[in-house]
Design brief:
With about 110 residues, the protein is of the alpha+beta class. About 40% of the residues lie in helices and about 25% in strands. It has 3 helices and 4 strands. It has a 4-stranded antiparallel beta sheet with strand order 1-2-3-4. The longest helix has 18 residues.
Length: about 110
């Protein structure tokens, strides 16, 4: 699990550098990994950066982790970090982020099974 999460972080970091402005809105940037073969209880893991859709918070972003298990219509997601673009970039650089994602991923998969 660690390997694909590290790859997702690295790829998302590049997208944030290129596509997420310091201020204002932007299209969602994400990395999605097909994990059906891993038999972890989900079909896809998604790491994404999104806009905060609250007036007055246009310069804040969410770093989110989500799981889905197709063909089920259900998914689960959690916010990993709320902050500015710079704070999100800093979070994506932290070595301990992989461990945080692993723990959150286990919880999200458990939520899918409930």
């Amino acid at each position: 699990m660690r390997e694909f999460l590290e790859m997702m972080i690295q790829n998302l970091r590049k997208q944030v550098e290129e596509k997420v402005p310091e201020t204002g809105e932007f299209p969602v940037v994400y990395e999605r990994e097909d994990v059906k073969e891993r038999r972890i209880g989900a079909s896809h893991v998604i790491l994404k950066v999104t806009n905060v859709q609250v007036k007055g918070s246009e310069d804040e972003r969410y770093l989110e982790l989500a799981v889905v298990n197709y063909p089920s219509p259900y998914g689960a997601e959690t916010v990993i970090k709320l902050g500015t673009t710079q704070q999100i970039k800093e979070e994506l650089e932290k070595p301990e982020l992989v461990e945080v994602l692993q723990q959150r991923l286990k919880r999200l998969i458990a939520d899918l099974e409930d």
